[in-house]
Structure formats: C-alpha cells, structure tokens
Specification:
With about 150 residues, the chain is mainly alpha-helical. It is built from 5 helices and no strands.
Length: about 150
C-alpha cells in the first residue's frame, strides 16, 4: 500500500500542480481515475488475503495520494496567484477578457477558497475510490478463485 500510495502521490502532485495553474476545476476530471488506480495498485502490490484488508490498503494508499494532491494543489494555487497578481497589465487583461477589473485582494480570496474546496473534494474522492479500487482488485483476482469441491451434488 505504501508503494502504490507513493507512486500515486508523485503522479498526483505533478498532475494537479500542472493543471491547477489553469483552473482548479480541471483537477476534478482525472482524480477519480487516480483514486481507482491507486487502490487497485495497492491490492496488486500487497496481495491482501481478505476483502477487509484490501479495502483498508486501498484507503490508506488513497490517503497518501490525496495528501500529495492537496500539497500540489495549494502549491500551484500560490504560484498562480503570485504570478497573476504581480502583473502590471492585470486591469487591462481583465477588461480585454470582458471581465470587470476586480481588486487583487478579491482575486486572492476567491482563488484560495475555490482551491480549498476543490482540494478537499479531490482528497475525499481519492480516498473513497482508492477503497473501491482495492475491493475491485480483490474481486477480480481472488473473488473468482472459489473451491466448489465441498459442495453437495
């Protein structure tokens, strides 16, 4: 579970940090796949004996990945806000896009609040779907291996 969690953490940090420079809403698209993939990898690497252990391993791997995703999202948020608020052409750029020139403090507040909600949603999604990925691995690999030799005919 640690190996899968750290692999997911590296991929998630890079993915979220790069997409968050555009918009925090761009990160919501692939985080379900990241959560499922990390949970499935946790089962594949650890080969848990029971469904409960597979569920727990997927959740822990999702938690590790989700923590890195939050760090990546907040790092990119700060970088984005610093880059944009230090532009001297900020009011001109906003009016060219057809938006009213909002004050810098309002932009900071909106950016931080939006990214906070998106990062919490991403964390919960990754942990929950990490558990689902662990259960999915267990069902696909060990759920089919049933011994029917003890059944009565």
């Amino acid at each position: 579970m640690l190996k899968a969690g750290f692999i997911g953490a590296i991929i998630g940090f890079i993915y979220v940090a790069s997409l968050n420079l555009l918009s925090p809403f761009c990160t919501l698209c692939v985080t379900p796949l990241l959560g499922l993939g990390v949970g499935y990898l946790a089962g594949w690497f650890d080969n848990p004996p029971t469904l409960e252990v597979s569920f727990r391993n997927g959740s822990i791997a999702g938690g590790i990945t989700g923590s890195a995703v939050i760090c990546g999202q907040m790092t990119a948020t700060l970088a984005n806000a610093i880059l944009l608020t230090n532009l001297k052409e900020w009011p001109t750029l906003m009016t060219q896009m057809g938006l009213p020139a909002i004050p810098i403090n309002d932009y900071w507040q909106a950016t931080l609040v939006t990214n906070s909600f998106c990062s919490i949603f991403n964390m919960l999604t990754i942990v929950g779907l990490g558990a689902v990925g662990g259960v999915s691995w267990f069902q696909s690999s060990k759920g089919k291996k049933q011994d029917f030799s003890d059944t009565k005919s």
